[in-house]
Amino acid sequence: xxxxxxxxxxxxxxxxxxxxxxxxxxxxxxxxxxxxxxxxxxxxxxxxxxxxxxxxxxxxxxxxxxxxxxxxxxxxxxxxxxxxxxxxxxxxxxxxxxxxxxxxxxxxxxxxxxxxxxxxxxxxxxxxxxxx
Length: 132
Fold this sequence. Notes:
seven-stranded antiparallel sheet, alpha+beta
């Protein structure tokens, strides 16, 4: 594990991080876990959706999530996929055309769920994932 909770015993070994992700394999995953650091340094693990576009992984969240705030504060994250952790750096996508392409990819993979759109809002925080 790349982040350790303050409540975890120090004697517990941390798992070794995996090499750079194989985005083509991750593209088929329905959900993954993103691990961020809370302000107090504790790890926060959140189950999320992921898409791959042009060989790059993307994640998104609403403007009001704790884990999204964590990424805003510290872009060094980990992605856990099938028990393996990948150390990554998230960067926020601001280009309108790129954001549209990514949103289209999320809709193609997960559908256009009105409830999720209401929760996520009209301006989700979209993050590009790159190896550290």
